C-alpha cells in the first residue's frame, strides 16, 4: 500500500505526472550529456598528455625544482641502475626509457630556429615517436646522426626527409658543439607548438653531442592510468629508502594544463548541473504543492482513520520517490539515445593551438550516468520535503472541511 | 455471525462519556460557543441519533468524541480513558483501534478500489494479508457489495459508496462508529437502506453508533435520540419502535 497508493495517486492526474517526469528527465539528460561531453574531452586530453609525457617520469629533484646549475641534474649510470632495479619490482610498469632533453639551435639554409631536442632510445616502445611519423621513416637502433622533426617545423623551414640540418648545442662542459643531422622522418602531433619546437634524435648521439653518458630523466609507462598514484608512491618510497636524490612525477603534475582544464570542466559541469537542479527543484516543488493541496480533504480522511503524521509524510514523499526514479531513469535513457546519436554523427572541432580537428564525443558510461541520476533524484526528493511536511501537519478537522 | 468471521461486543458498559464538554471558536475578536458544558453517555450497543439544525454544534460534538478536534474545556472519555492529555500520535492510535468514521460525503480514497478502501484501516493496524482479505471480504458481503470490490468509488452509486464507507468503518472491529450526516447525499430510499444496514450492524456487532443528522428519516432508526440546539444537549428519550425498524 505504501508504494501502491502513491503510484496510483500519481496516475490520477496523468498529464501533470507526465509533465513532471519530462522536466526531471530533461534536466537529467542535459546533465548526463554535459558530463559525458566533458568526460570524453578529459579522457582525450589524458591520452594526449600521457602520449607526450609518459605515465611517470623520474629525475633529479633539482630538475623539477629548476634549481640545477647547468647539467648537474643529469642521472649517472649508477643512478639509472638503482632506478631500474626498483622498477623491476613494479608489476604495473609496461616499459621504460631514458631520455636526454636539451635546447639547441637548428640551421637549415639561411633559416635558424631554437628547438627543444629530446634524445631517446630508438625502437623503445615508451613514447614511441615512430608511431607519429607521417612522412619518411622512424628512428632505428642503427641510426646515428638522424632526426625526426615536426610537421609544422618542416613546413616553416621547407624541409623534407633526407634533407640535412645543423644542430648547435652547448655541451655539459659549456663548450659549443655543432653537428649535421639527416631528417629521417616528419612526425605529426595534436599540438602545433610541439610540432614546431620539438625534435627527436637517438640517445647515444644526443649524449655524444653533449659530451656525457648521463640522461635527463627516465620515462615510465604503466599498464593502467588508475595505477599512477599507487605506483608513484611505491617507487618514491623505495627511492627515499635508498636515500636517492631522485623524485617521481606523474603525468598530471607534468602537465598543469591538464589539471587546470579538468578543474575547469568540473566547475562548468557543477554550474550546469546546479542550474538545472535548481530549475527542476522549483518546478517540481510547484507541481507537488498543487497536487498535494488538491488532496487536503483526502489527508483529513486518512488522518481521521488513524494514519499518523509520519505515515502521511511517507505516503506523499513516496510519490516523489516514484517521480524521481521514473524521471531520472527516463532522463538517463534519453541522454543515452541523444549521446549515441551525437557520437554517430561525428562532429569535428579544431581546438586552438592544435593542428588536427578532434572528433567530439559523449562518453556514455556508468561513471558519467550515476552522478546526473543521483543529483536529479536528490533535487526531486528535496523539492518534495516541504509540501510533504505541510500535508502531514494539516489539522484533521481543517482538512476535512476543505471541499 | 461468528461463521461469517465478524465480531460482537458485550452490551451495557460505558463506551463514551463527556463531562462539561465545551468548545469555543474565535472568529476575529469574537468568541463563538459551539458547545456549552455538554454531558453525554453512550453504552456499548447503543444506537444514538443526535438531531439538530445546521450550526447547532452537532458536527463539533462528533469531531470532539472522534478525537479529531480538541475541546476548549471538559473531557471526553473513550472506554473510560480520558483523551485530552493524549498526544497526536496516541489520538491517531485511539482512532485507529477504537473508532470507525462515516462521513457525509463518503470520503473514500478515489484511487483505491472498494476492496482496498475497506482494507486501508487494516493496513494501518498491520493486520496480516490473509486476515485482511478474510475480514474485508466478509464485510463487503455483509453490506451487499461482495461483487463490487474491484470497482473504484467513481464507478459506484452514492448508496454503494456509503456502504463501502460503512464497511471501512467496521473493518477494524471498532467499539464506536460515528457517522456525520450519513444520508445527506443520498435519496430517501437509499438513505433508508443505508440506515437499515447501520442499524442491523449495530444489532449484530453491539457496536455503539452515534449518528448526527438533521434528517427526520434517520431518527426513525434511533434507539435513543438526543437533540442539540445552540450547543446544548437535550435528551430526546428512547425510541421503542426502532427495534422493529431494524
Beta fraction of the residues of chain A?
A: 15-25%
CATH overall fold name of chain B? Rossmann fold
Number of domains of chain B: 1
Name the overall outline of chain B. globular
Low-confidence stretches of chain B: 1-5, 242-246
Overall description:
The complex is a heterodimer of chains A (403) and B (246). Chain A is 55% helix and 20% strand. By secondary structure, chain A is α+β, with helices and mostly antiparallel strands. In chain A, the strands form two sheets. In chain A, strands 2-3-8-5-7-6 form a six-stranded mixed β-barrel. A two-stranded antiparallel ribbon of chain A has the order 11-12. In chain A, helix 1 crosses helix 12 and helix 2 runs antiparallel to helix 13. The longest helix of chain A is centred in the N-terminal third of the chain and has 40 residues, at 14-53. The model of chain A has no long low-confidence stretch (mean pLDDT 90). Chain B has 246 residues and is an alpha/beta fold. Chain B has a single domain (2-11, 43-69, 85-245), classed as Rossmann fold (3-Layer(aba) Sandwich). Chain B is 34% helix and 28% strand. Chain B is built from eight helices and ten strands. Chain B has helices spanning 58-65, 88-98, 114-124, 129-142, 158-171, 188-205, 216-219, 242-245, and strands at 14-27, 30-43, 47-51, 73-78, 81-82, 99-102, 176-180, 208-213, 224-229, 232-238. The longest helix of chain B is centred in the last third of the chain and has 18 residues, at 188-205. Chain B is globular, with a radius of gyration of 17 Å. The A-B interface holds A 1, 5, 8-9, 11-12, 297-298, 300-309, 311, 396-397, 400 and B 63, 66, 68-69, 88-89, 92-93, 95-97, 101, 103, 107, 109-112, 116, 119-121, 123-124, 168.
Protein topology:
The complex is a heterodimer of chains A (403) and B (246).
Chain A: H1 4-12, H2 14-53, E1 56-60, H3 61-65, H4 77-88, E2 93-108, E3 111-120, E4 133-136, E5 146-150, H5 151-157, E6 164-170, E7 176-187, H6 192-197, E8 198-202, H7 203-210, E9 217-222, H8 228-241, E10 246-250, H9 251-254, H10 256-293, H11 296-304, H12 309-345, E11 348-349, E12 358-359, H13 366-392, H14 396-401
Helix pairs in contact in A: 1-12, 2-10, 2-12, 2-13, 10-13, 12-13
Chain B: E1 14-27, E2 30-43, E3 47-51, H1 58-65, E4 73-78, E5 81-82, H2 88-98, E6 99-102, H3 114-124, H4 129-142, H5 158-171, E7 176-180, H6 188-205, E8 208-213, H7 216-219, E9 224-229, E10 232-238, H8 242-245
Parallel strand pairs in B: 3-8, 3-9, 6-7, 7-8
Antiparallel strand pairs in B: 1-2, 1-4, 4-5, 9-10
Amino acid at each position: 500500500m505504501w508504494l501502491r497508493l502513491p503510484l496510483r495517486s500519481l496516475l490520477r492526474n496523468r498529464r501533470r505526472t507526465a509533465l513532471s517526469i519530462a522536466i526531471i528527465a530533461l534536466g537529467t539528460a542535459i546533465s548526463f550529456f554535459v558530463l559525458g561531453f566533458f568526460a570524453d574531452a578529459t579522457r582525450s586530453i589524458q591520452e594526449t598528455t600521457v602520449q607526450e609525457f609518459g605515465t611517470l617520469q623520474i629525475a633529479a629533484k633539482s630538475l623539477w625544482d629548476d634549481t640545477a646549475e647547468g647539467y648537474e641534474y643529469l642521472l649517472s649510470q649508477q643512478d639509472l641502475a638503482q632506478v631500474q632495479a626498483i622498477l623491476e619490482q613494479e608489476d604495473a610498469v609496461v616499459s621504460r626509457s631514458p631520455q636526454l632533453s636539451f635546447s639547441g639551435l637548428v640551421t637549415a639554409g639561411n633559416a635558424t630556429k631554437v628547438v627543444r631536442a629530446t634524445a631517446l632510445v630508438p625502437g623503445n616502445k615508451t613514447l614511441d615517436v615512430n608511431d607519429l611519423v607521417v612522412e619518411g621513416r622512424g628512428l632505428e637502433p642503427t641510426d646515428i646522426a638522424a632526426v625526426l622533426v615536426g610537421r609544422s617545423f618542416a613546413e616553416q623551414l621547407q624541409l623534407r626527409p633526407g634533407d640535412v640540418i645543423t644542430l648547435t648545442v652547448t655541451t655539459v662542459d659549456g663548450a659549443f658543439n655543432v653537428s649535421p643531422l639527416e631528417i629521417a622522418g616528419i612526425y605529426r602531433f595534436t599540438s602545433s607548438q610541439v610540432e614546431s619546437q620539438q625534435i627527436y634524435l637517438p640517445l647515444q648521439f644526443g649524449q655524444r653531442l653533449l659530451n656525457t653518458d648521463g640522461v635527463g630523466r627516465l620515462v615510465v609507462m604503466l599498464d593502467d592510468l588508475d595505477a599512477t598514484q599507487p605506483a608513484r608512491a611505491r617507487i618514491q618510497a623505495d627511492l627515499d629508502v635508498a636515500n636517492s636524490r631522485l623524485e617521481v612525477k606523474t603525468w598530471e603534475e607534468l602537465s598543469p594544463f591538464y589539471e587546470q582544464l579538468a578543474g575547469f570542466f568540473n566547475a562548468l559541469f557543477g554550474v550546469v548541473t546546479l542550474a538545472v537542479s535548481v530549475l527542476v527543484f522549483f518546478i517540481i516543488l510547484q507541481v507537488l504543492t498543487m497536487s498535494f493541496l488538491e488532496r487536503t480533504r483526502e489527508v483529513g480522511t486518512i488522518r481521521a482513520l488513524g494514519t499518523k503524521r509520519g505515515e502521511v509524510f511517507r505516503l506523499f514523499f513516496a510519490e516523489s520517490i516514484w517521480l524521481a526514479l521514473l524521471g531520472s531513469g527516463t532522463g538517463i535513457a534519453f541522454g543515452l539515445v541523444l549521446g549515441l546519436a551525437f557520437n554517430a554523427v561525428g562532429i569535428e572541432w579544431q581546438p586552438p593551438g592544435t593542428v588536427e580537428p578532434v572528433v567530439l564525443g559523449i562518453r556514455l558510461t556508468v561513471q558519467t550516468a550515476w552522478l546526473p541520476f543521483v543529483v536529479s533524484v536528490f533535487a526531486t526528493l528535496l523539492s518534495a520535503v516541504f509540501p510533504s511536511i505541510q500535508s502531514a501537519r494539516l489539522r484533521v478537522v481543517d482538512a476535512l472541511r476543505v471541499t | 455471525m461468528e461463521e461469517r468471521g465478524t465480531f460482537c461486543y458485550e452490551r451495557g458498559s460505558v463506551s463514551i462519556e463527556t463531562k462539561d464538554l465545551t468548545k469555543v471558536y474565535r472568529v476575529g475578536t469574537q468568541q463563538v460557543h459551539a458547545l456549552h458544558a455538554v454531558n453525554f453517555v453512550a453504552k456499548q450497543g447503543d444506537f444514538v441519533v443526535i438531531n439538530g439544525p445546521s450550526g447547532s454544534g452537532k458536527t463539533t460534538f462528533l469531531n470532539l468524541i472522534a478525537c479529531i478536534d480538541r475541546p476548549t474545556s471538559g473531557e471526553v472519555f473513550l472506554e473510560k480513558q480520558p483523551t485530552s492529555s493524549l498526544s497526536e500520535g496516541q489520538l491517531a492510535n485511539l482512532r485507529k483501534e477504537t473508532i470507525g468514521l462515516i462521513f457525509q460525503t463518503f470520503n473514500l480514497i478515489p484511487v483505491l478500489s472498494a476492496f482496498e478502501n475497506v482494507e486501508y484501516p487494516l493496513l494501518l493496524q498491520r493486520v496480516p494479508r490473509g486476515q485482511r482479505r478474510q475480514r474485508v471480504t466478509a464485510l463487503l458481503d455483509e453490506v451487499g457489495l461482495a461483487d463490487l470490490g474491484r470497482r473504484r468509488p467513481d464507478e459506484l452509486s452514492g448508496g454503494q459508496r456509503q456502504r463501502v464507507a460503512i464497511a471501512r468503518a467496521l473493518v477494524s472491529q471498532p467499539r464506536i462508529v460515528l457517522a456525520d450526516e450519513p444520508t445527506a447525499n443520498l435519496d430517501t430510499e437509499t438513505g433508508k437502506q443505508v440506515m437499515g444496514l447501520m442499524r442491523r450492524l449495530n444489532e449484530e456487532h453491539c457496536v455503539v453508533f452515534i449518528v448526527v443528522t438533521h434528517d427526520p428519516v434517520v431518527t426513525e432508526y434511533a434507539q435513543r435520540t438526543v437533540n442539540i440546539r445552540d450547543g446544548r444537549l437535550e435528551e430526546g428519550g428512547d425510541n421503542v419502535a426502532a427495534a422493529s425498524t431494524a
